[in-house]
């Protein structure tokens, strides 16, 4: 449960202009050789199969946005994702967006728009973890 909340915070897609309606976070992916394409396909399969997921919405979205301000946007090049741990569907204006996150929380990937968001310093990781702790307490 804690891991799902951590992921949900990171998957908010801070650069989206439209408001975030909700985020459906699926269970941890099985270990494997994930690529951008296979992760995207798996997210859609889980969505179509109505797989169990954790929904983040309402006041928790504000904390999600605050956490995403720490991440720097970059272009995502499709390829292997050796550290991928979760996928999720973010809904913005009713439109679904497929997201993935690395196990160390250092990279969030928007597989729909081919963007990724990164943090790299210890300080940034600590700030994100502090925000996640706040989400879990409130």
Task: Label this structure with key terms.
alpha+beta
Tell me what the structure shows.
The chain contains 4 helices and 7 strands. By secondary structure, it is of the alpha+beta class. It has one domain (2-137). The longest helix has 16 residues, at 122-137. It is globular, with a radius of gyration of 13 Å. It starts with a helix and ends with a helix.
Q: What is the count of β-strands?
A: 7
* Rg from Cα: 13 Å
- Listing every helix as H and every strand as E from the N terminus to the C terminus, the arrangement reads HEHEHEEEEEH
Shape: globular
Please report which band the strand proportion falls in: under 5%, 5-15%, 15-25%, 25-35%, 35-45% or over 45%.
25-35%
Please give the share of residues in helix.
25-40%
Average pLDDT figure: 77
Number of structural units classed as domains: 1
Structural class: alpha+beta
What's this model, at a glance?
The chain is of the alpha+beta class and 138 residues long. It has helices spanning 2-10, 36-48, 60-68, 122-137; strands spanning 20-26, 53-57, 72-75, 84-92, 95-102, 107-110, 115-118.
Write the layout of secondary structure elements.
Elements: H1 2-10, E1 20-26, H2 36-48, E2 53-57, H3 60-68, E3 72-75, E4 84-92, E5 95-102, E6 107-110, E7 115-118, H4 122-137
Antiparallel strand pairs: 1-2, 1-4, 3-7, 4-5, 5-6, 6-7
Helix pairs in contact: 1-4, 3-4
């Amino acid at each position: 449960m804690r891991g799902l909340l951590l992921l949900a915070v990171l998957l908010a897609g801070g650069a989206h202009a439209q408001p975030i309606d909700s985020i459906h976070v699926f269970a941890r992916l099985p270990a494997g050789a994930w690529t951008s394409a296979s992760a995207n396909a798996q997210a859609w399969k889980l969505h179509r199969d109505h797989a169990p997921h954790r929904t983040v919405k309402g006041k928790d979205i504000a904390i999600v946005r605050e956490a995403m301000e720490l991440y720097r946007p970059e272009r995502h090049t499709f390829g292997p994702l050796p550290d991928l741990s979760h996928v999720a569907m973010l809904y913005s204006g009713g439109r679904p967006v497929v997201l993935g996150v690395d196990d160390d929380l250092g990279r969030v990937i928007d597989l729909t728009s081919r963007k990724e968001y990164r943090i790299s310093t210890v300080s940034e990781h600590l700030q994100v973890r502090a925000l996640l702790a706040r989400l879990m307490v409130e």
